[in-house]
Design brief:
This protein is mostly beta strands and 439 residues long. Helix content is 4%, strand content 26%. It has one helix at residues 4-19; strands at residues 21-23, 44-46, 53-57, 64-66, 79-81, 86-89, 103-105, 110-114, 127-129, 134-138, 151-153, 158-160, 175-177, 184-185, 199-201, 206-210, 223-225, 230-234, 248-250, 255-259, 272-274, 279-282, 296-298, 303-304, 326-328, 335-337, 351-353, 358-361, 375-377, 382-385, 399-401, 406-407, 410-411, 422-424, 431-432. The termini are far apart. One of its GO terms (molecular function) is protein serine/threonine kinase activity. It is found in: Cell membrane. Belongs to the RLP family.
C-alpha cells in the first residue's frame, strides 16, 4: 500500500523546490502543477512500487534561484542533478537526510558558503560533483572508512586550507578532482590508501613539497595531473614502473629539477606527457618509440640538452608515435641538427614548436611530408642554408616562424601557395624571388 503521507511530502517538496526558482527560461517546470501526477512532471522519476521520487534530473535548463531545504524530505531520492544552471545560495544541509542518495551533482552553478560536512554521512553516496561554484571554507575533514564515494569533484571553487587527511579513508575512490581550489600545504600521505584511484587532479593550487611518494602504491592510476602548483625536487627514477596504466602525466608549471626519468618509456598507454615550465635538465632519454599512443608531448621551457650535437638523438624514436598531434620542445638548451626522420613524424601532427634552442644545420626537405601541420616554429636557433621548397606542400600551414636564424638564398616560390596567417622571417638573410613580397 502506498503511504499517502509520504507521497504527499514528495509532492509538497517538489512545489517548494519550484517556488525557489525565480526564472525558468526553457519552461522546464511548467508541467509542475496539479494537472498531472507529480511522477509525470518534467525531470522527475518515481519508483514503480511506492510512487516515491527517486530521481531529480534538472540539469542545463538555465534555472535561476536557490535550492530549497525541502529537498531533504524526499527520502527515496537516489539521484540529484541540478548541474549547469544559475542556482545560488547555500547547499542545503538537509540533503544529509537522504540516506538512499547515490549521486549528487550540483556543478556549474553559483552556490556559495561552506560545503555541508554532514552530506558525507550519506552512506550510499558514490558520486559528488560540486565543481565550478563559489563554495568557500575548508574541505570538511569528515570522510569515514564506510564511505562508498568513487568520484569527488570540487574543482574551481573558492576553498582554502589543506587537503584533509581523512580523504585517505575513501578506499573506493576512483576519481579525485581538486583543481584550482586555492588549497595549500602538502599532499597527504594518507593518499597511499587510495588503491582504486584512477584519476587525480590537484593542479592550480598552492601545494608544496616533493613528488608524492604515495604514487608508488597506486597501480591503477591513469591520469596524474598536478600542473601549476609549487611541487619541487626531482621526478622519481622509477616513474611508470608501478603505474603501467598511465595515459596522462601533467606536471607542468612546477619547480621540478633533475633529469627526465627514462622509465617513462614503460608507460606504454601514455597519451599526454606535459612537463613544461620546470627546471628539468640533461638528456631526453625516453624511448618514445614505445609510446605508440602518445598524442601530446610538451617539454618546453626547461633546461634540456647541453648545446651538443647529440641532444637530438631521441628524435628518430618519435617516428613510431603515429598518433602524435602536438610537440613542443621550445626554450631549452638543445643543440644538434634536425634529422631526415623529421618527415616520418605523425601525419596527425598539427603543432611543432622547437624555437629558442641551439639547433643548427638546414631544415630537412622531408618537412614537406607533414601535411597536417598548421603551426611550425623554429625561431631563435642557428639554422642555415635554404628554406626547403617542400614547405610549399604544407597546405594546412597557417603559422610559420623562422625569425632570428641564419638562412640564406631565396624565399621558395612554392610558399606563395600557402594561406599563411602569420609568417615571421625577420632577421633571416634571405631575399624574395618576388619584386614585392606577397605577405
Amino acid at each position: 500500500m502506498i503511504e499517502a503521507v509520504s507521497v504527499s511530502s514528495d509532492h509538497l517538496a517538489l512545489l517548494e523546490i519550484k517556488s525557489e526558482i525565480t526564472l525558468d527560461p526553457k519552461g522546464a517546470l511548467t508541467s509542475w502543477n496539479d494537472s498531472l501526477p507529480f511522477c509525470r512532471w518534467s525531470g522527475v522519476t518515481c519508483g514503480h512500487r511506492h510512487q516515491r521520487v527517486t530521481m531529480l534530473d534538472l540539469q542545463d535548463l538555465g534555472l535561476v534561484g536557490s535550492l530549497s531545504p525541502y529537498l531533504g524530505n524526499m527520502s527515496f531520492l537516489r539521484y540529484i542533478n541540478f548541474s549547469s544552471n544559475q542556482l545560488h545560495g547555500s547547499i542545503p544541509p538537509e540533503i544529509s537526510r537522504l540516506y538512499r542518495l547515490q549521486v549528487l551533482s550540483l556543478s556549474k552553478n553559483s552556490f556559495s558558503g561552506k560545503i555541508p560536512a554532514n552530506i558525507f554521512n550519506c552512506s550510499k553516496l558514490s558520486f559528488i560533483n560540486l565543481q565550478l561554484n563559489k563554495l568557500s571554507g575548508k574541505i570538511p575533514n569528515a570522510f569515514n572508512s564506510k564511505s562508498m564515494i568513487t568520484v569527488l569533484a570540487l574543482d574551481r571553487n573558492h576553498l582554502t586550507g589543506w587537503i584533509p587527511q581523512s580523504i585517505g579513508n575513501l578506499t573506493s575512490l576512483e576519481n579525485l578532482s581538486l583543481h584550482d581550489c586555492h588549497l595549500e600545504g602538502s599532499i597527504p600521505d594518507s593518499f597511499s590508501q587510495l588503491k582504486n584511484l584512477r584519476k587525480i587532479g590537484l593542479g592550480e593550487n598552492g601545494l608544496v613539497g616533493a613528488f608524492p611518494s604515495f604514487m608508488f602504491n597506486l597501480s591503477m592510476l591513469e591520469i596524474l595531473s598536478f600542473p601549476d602548483t609549487q611541487l619541487q625536487g626531482s621526478l622519481p627514477s622509477n616513474l611508470c614502473l608501478s603505474q603501467p596504466h598511465l595515459t596522462w602525466i601533467g606536471l607542468g608549471g612546477n619547480h621540478f629539477n633533475g633529469f627526465l626519468p627514462p622509465s617513462i618509456s614503460n608507460c606504454s598507454q601514455l597519451e599526454i606527457l606535459e612537463l613544461p615550465e620546470n627546471y628539468l635538465k640533461g638528456e631526453i632519454a625516453v624511448d618514445f618509440g614505445r609510446l605508440q599512443h602518445l598524442t601530446s608531448l610538451s617539454l618546453g621551457d626547461n633546461n634540456f640538452g647541453s648545446k651538443d650535437l647529440d641532444d637530438m638523438n631521441f628524435f628518430p624514436s618519435l617516428s613510431n608515435c603515429s598518433n602524435l598531434e602536438m610537440m613542443d620542445i621550445s626554450f631549452n638548451q638543445l643543440g644538434g641538427v634536425l634529422p631526415n626522420s623529421l618527415g616520418n613524424l605523425s601525419s596527425k601532427l598539427w603543432y611543432l614548436g622547437m624555437n629558442s634552442n641551439y639547433l643548427s644545420g638546414s631544415i630537412p626537405s622531408s618537412i614537406g611530408n607533414l601535411l597536417g601541420l598548421t603551426t611550425f616554429s623554429l625561431n631563435e636557433n642557428n639554422f642555415t642554408g635554404l628554406i626547403p621548397e617542400s614547405i610549399g606542400k604544407l597546405q594546412n600551414l597557417q603559422e610559420l616562424y623562422l625569425l632570428d636564424n641564419h638562412f640564406s638564398g631565396v624565399i621558395p616560390r612554392s610558399m606563395g601557395n600557402l594561406l599563411l596567417v602569420h609568417l615571421c622571417l625577420y632577421f633571416v638573410c634571405i631575399r624574395s624571388v618576388y619584386e614585392r613580397c606577397p605577405w
